[in-house]
């Protein structure tokens, strides 16, 4: 299968972002509300969301259930379990799953979990580091290069993918391969990204007292129902939030596991809505970002701040949010708080991920942009492959 099948890039002449050749003075103006379609018109939504990213987002509970089955059928054994660190090699939509798992497990992790988003391997890996290469397409050169080095060093390794060169390399090297089937976009496979890794580490005893997946699935189902496309904007917080972000740059804040969720929101806003977005972890943001909110003054209305919060957050973090509100409340009016809901950390994280995914697709629809294809990303991969040859290690 060609990488283009995964990323939805069809036409080499398509150049998104190219400025239209027009004399129309309005071509560069920011979007106006009257330009946006209503999110409550199923026909308009279908016309824009041609590959049904909204429907794909609703498959998260099914993916989680399937992921649990895959991980349970192929548990880690021997050298893969007897480890003192775990390094996950992954990029983009395949990496965020590991970041979310690290956030959920937090102090319950028995060994450090490093998420490596680069070519090669992180420093400091010893013979007892479990290397997990995760790539949805199995074709990501950064991940392939690190996996190759891990094999050369004979580190305990596992591969998680739908196929591609990663599956072939794992099979050739006799490395355990956890394979799932999903034809869509990598970022839309988040249920596998979180579910397989969480269950694999939990099954190996590398997460103490892990949260059960069942209640998390139920929490996600509830959230998806509450924010579903069929729920009208007046009763749908995800649609309302997309409207608030429309024409503005969303900046997402979170603490602990919710920092990983904030990162996921940012990447989904980028890839689905094709929108600028940023994220900031708490409490680090209190030491710099808070000071950077003043200039340029003309842009103060151009941002939209979202705080993704957990009712179980430590009191010192709640206190920080309260003081920030006190300091910035009147000035920074474009902001909302999203409270994650659910009976466990895993449930709240997955629920907040589901909500953010829907917000990002609703925002894409408001911008009248098909959320599924990531044409620039695909073009970049293709041009790099052409420039460097297809050998992953030579693409550095
Ligand atoms: C596209 C997406 C990307 C990819 C990334 C790595 O939907 O989410 O961020 O995840 O380019 O590709 P894979 O996941 O195939 O290793």
Description of the molecule:
The chain is an alpha/beta fold and 396 residues long. 43% of the residues lie in helices and 13% in strands. The protein contains 14 helices and nine strands. The strands form two sheets. Strands 2-1-3-4-5 form a five-stranded parallel beta sheet, sandwiched between helices. Strand 3, helix 6 and strand 4 form a beta-alpha-beta unit. The two termini are 23 Å apart. The C terminus is likely disordered. Bound molecules: fructose -6-phosphate. The site of fructose -6-phosphate has 16 residues, from helix 5.
What is this structure's SSE topology?
Elements: H1 3-7, H2 42-48, H3 53-57, H4 60-73, E1 85-89, H5 92-105, E2 113-116, E3 129-135, H6 141-152, E4 157-161, H7 164-173, E5 177-179, H8 190-203, H9 213-226, H10 237-245, E6 249-255, H11 257-271, E7 278-282, E8 303-310, H12 315-328, E9 335-340, H13 345-366, H14 375-388
Parallel strand pairs: 1-2, 1-3, 3-4, 4-5, 6-7, 6-8, 8-9
Helix pairs in contact: 4-8, 4-9, 5-8, 5-11, 6-7, 9-13, 10-13, 11-13
Bound molecules: fructose -6-phosphate.
